[in-house]
Amino acid sequence: MKRNRVFSIMLLIGILSSCVSLEDKNLTVQERAETNIIGSVTATFTSFQFFNIPNKTNIKNKAYAELKKIAQREYGGNIDIRNITIAGGFALPELLNIGVGISLGILGFYDAFEGSHSLSDILIGAAPIPFIIGNFQKLTVTGDVVQFNAVSGSNQMLVNNVQNSMMAISDELIKTLPKGATIAVLSMSSNDRTLSETALDELEYSLVDSKQFIIVDRAKLDQIRNEQNLQAAGDISDDSAVSMGNIYGWNIVILGSISSTGSRGRITVKALDVKTAQIVTMAREQF
Q1: Which of 88, 130, 182, 221 is least surrounded by Cβ atoms within 10 Å, i.e. has the fewest?
Q2: What is the pTM of this model?
Q3: Distance between CA atoms of residues 141 and 118, nearest Å
Q4: Whether residue 52 has pLDDT greater than 80
């Protein structure tokens, strides 16, 4: 029984002291030269860690979506979130876990004094179970709001047109894509990198905000593109996209293209099923 007590105490201390601490979307050297930090935003939300293992991808996607939503409301325009920090702390729902664990421990000690040692061992041994299943954490996330220097005048109008078109395309994709699918937004080919980044950001934000899919983290995709010598603004063939999806275990890969002349253009986006290589859905908008 002494071993059970020691194990329970050590497990409780370990879980309560293990908090999420993450960083995401740090500005690269090139991005620092192309952007202005115009402010910062903060958000909080509660996350449950199954078996006390944080799902880093989901947490980062949720943090980005929450911060982007606040930044759009407060700043508007062609903005994005960078230098995200995520810190976990005690969440009130965790009191339920603590209460159940303590109650089992108290009952075990009470039965021990009453002479039912076998039952006391079972109860005290079961005390850590709520903490093994998982724990709640309150996550506080902060990020810098950045604005791209390259966008001004007529370019700003073009970017706004792309944003509006991508909102309509995103709505169409969300309606037709299979719910719960793991989706990688791979590329948006264009001669204008700013337009590509704008379209990718808007699509990724909308998909994450819908809370209906698992979206592959942008940092992970950037790493894969670097390994494959691919650019987010460049063409990626359907075969290459499907092959990457099979390698990394994605369900859906999304590719797009932007063609523009002056202030007018067209955006085409298609989603491919990785298993069948067939087009699941396709959307097109003029701007």
Answers
A1: 182
A2: 0.51
A3: 46
A4: no
